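Class, study these two lines:
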Amino acid sequence: MLLACIKNTFLLREEVISEKIIVETARELGLQNLNTRFNIYLSDQHLLILLKMLQERSVEGIRPSFLIEKFNLNKSTISYHLKKLKELDILKDEKIGKSKYFSFNQILIPFIQTKILNKYYLKTEV
């Protein structure tokens, strides 16, 4: 975010990073309304899925079957949650061979980590 703001400041020939540049950069990066998106649309189950995915740190992403095993939930439930997380642009998916892998929108990882940390480890809300 900071590097993108610096770049936009340079491109607009501004001397300092202004609020306008920050807002526009956040929009360009898909970061606007993060608190609303995270607080309203992310259930506890979504956060637990994201936490498990963060803990795994797989290069190609996580297969739904992995989450089915870890949470002992049925395929349709996991698929529903993954679809919701994809709609929120938190996750993206990629088909590799016959399998679909889900991975993070990389720019959102620090925000997701903060939300999980506050929810489960610090016991406060963001």
In short: The first helix runs from residue 2 to 11. The chain has a mean pLDDT of 85. The longest strand covers residues 91-96. The radius of gyration is 17 Å.
